[in-house]
Amino acid sequence: MAVKVNWTLNVEVSEGxxxxxxxxxxxxxxxxxAVDIAATEKKDVEVQxxxxxxxDFFLITSSKYGASLKYQLYDPTTSALGAPEITLDAPHLLVxxxxxxxxxxxxVKLRVTNGLAEDVTVEILVARDAATLVTT
Length: 136
Known about the structure:
Blueprint: E1 3-12, E2 18-27, E3 29-37, E4 42-46, E5 55-62, E6 69-75, E7 80-81, E8 86-87, E9 92-95, H1 97-100, E10 109-114, E11 120-128
Antiparallel strand pairs: 1-2, 3-11, 4-10, 5-9, 5-11, 6-7, 6-8, 6-10
């Protein structure tokens, strides 16, 4: 049974271009994680059970943002931090598998580094296909 994720984008530049898009993504599974991270703390976060399947939607938000709040994905094949750190200075939304591949790795596990002077709550939402076709 598919789950539906509805998303809307509304961008408007004063006296400039506008963009509005609203769509529904159907996925076989979704996962939501909320993690409290104290000031100057690092935490590893399990986002989904494995890299099997195709992630079509990735959203990471925080209760506060800044240049010293960062996340980094683990390489699921080596279990080591493998991607460059990404600054979480605003919500990050990637829609479609093409956009999610910009992360370099499937968002299975990531490390959040809170270099801010205050505690934050980071929330991550992914939607994905859960099954893969077996051809034997």
